[in-house]
Write a structure and sequence with these properties.
Blueprint: H1 3-27, H2 33-45, H3 47-64, H4 85-94, E1 103-107, E2 119-123, H5 124-134
Antiparallel strand pairs: 1-2
Length: about 140
Amino acid sequence: MDRRAYYNEYNRTHREQRKKSSAEQHKKPGYSAKIKKWNLNWRLRNPEHFVFTRRLNSIRQRCYNVKRKCHKDYGGRGIECCITVKDLIFLWYRDKAFSMKWPEIHRIDNNKNYTVENCQYMERSKHRQIKSLTK
């Protein structure tokens, strides 16, 4: 058997083994392709909720993930995330962020936590001006 035939045979057998292992994975208890598909469809049906979830995750990363560069500016100063997705949606409609071109979340008092009372949505350009004045 020459080298090329050997490698072709080797790749074919390993490809079959990978197919078997992925088929076995689908038979594991707790795994369901229907659930994964439903989650994807839910995300497509509710894109606004997904956007708020991403925004909340970035806030939490700033406050709690020590490995992030910006942790020293947020969590390192004792700032915590006391806000939920429902609170972000409430703020979105309260501040009419849907009519803004590029809305960003802004803390009114920089030394306080992320709370409903301390946060508001603001146009990106205005937010950048305020950030440059406080630095």
